[in-house]
Amino acid sequence: MLDSLNRNIDYLRISVTDRCNLRCTYCMPPEGIEWIPHRAILTVEEMIRLSRLFADMGFRRIRLTGGEPLVRKGVEQIVRGIKDLPGIEKVTLTTNGVLLAAQLPALLDAGLDGVNISLDTLDRAQFAAIARRDELDRVIAGIHAALAVPGWNVKINCVPSGENDAQLIPIAALARDHDIAVRFIEMMPIGLGGTKQRRTQAEVLAMLEDAFGGAIACAQPDGGGPGEYVTFAGFQGRVGFISAMTHKFCNRCNRVRLSATGFLKTCLQYETGADLKALLNAGANDDTLRAAIAQAIAMKPASHHFSEHGETMDETRNMHQIGG
Ligand code: SAM
Ligand code: SF4
Prior knowledge:
The protein contains 11 helices and 12 strands. The chain is of the alpha/beta class. Strand 1 (11-15), helix 1 and strand 2 (61-65) form a beta-alpha-beta unit. Helix 2 runs parallel beside helix 3 and helix 3 (100-110) packs parallel to helix 5 (136-147). Residues 20, 26-27, 65-66, 68, 94-96, 118, 157, 159, 185, 187-188, 190, 193, 319-320, 324 line the site of S-adenosylmethionine. Residues 20, 22-24, 27-28, 66-68, 96, 118, 319-320 line the site of iron/sulfur cluster.
């Protein structure tokens, strides 16, 4: 559906849980967090029902995220239920990869169309330092399992933080050796991310050009999205940049987010949106829910203003709570 700025909003990201099996330093405090109680989280049935309403309103693609979506029991039921909805073309998932190899057969059987796997380093000790868990081996196994699925859509997402400079080349090289997209995501001042260093798109591109030669611009992949893509001589795949800070893409924004607690968040930075869980708890019918969704989308903010007005404007909650 169109928002008040004529942007076609057809992409929903659902956070299926706030919980996670890693503790990435830019996303979760070392001691973990107080998890949201189960009763406050959308049930599988509620997620599928709300997805049906979004599909009725023109949404075509849904991505499951978190927290870590693969720690949610019944995640494959959510995939299957959404994939079966009329109008839904693609159901994908963003994961840290730890449980991917084990769950891939069930996810494929449920109809999952692709995965984005987060990977900040290929160095085991550094992985354990960034994610505060020694899980690199299982992540690598998850990446290999995903790459072995014929014709599947696999993307690698990496957040350059200064800490992992030496790893950006080997990670980008995954797009040389495989026909996949490796995307570098600028650290955003969201929760703990605001306390971290960030490498900008320009800095990362300069490092890649030093290693691989001049970048060759690429067309946007199908479905639009915020990335800018390049490739290099000898690469099978592409390298993307998602640069919310230095290359703001709000004028092309096509998405809204549904939190694990059922809050429809229409911009990463702002609390504008609709509490759909409260409406569900009050017994709202489909028409009431659709009207609340439509009203929230109509009021979607024009853009984020991270860091333009000092730190108070930045999002204080962490990414695992918002649904990254
Ligand atoms: N647990 C899953 C994972 O790590 O892929 C899904 C949720 S995680 C919040 C989604 C993505 O958000 C990850 O790629 C993570 O690196 C990224 N992320 C977390 N905090 C961020 C921040 N402050 N700025 C930019 N990206 C961030
Ligand atoms: Fe967990 Fe993903 Fe956040 Fe890391 S970035 S702590 S894997 S939710």
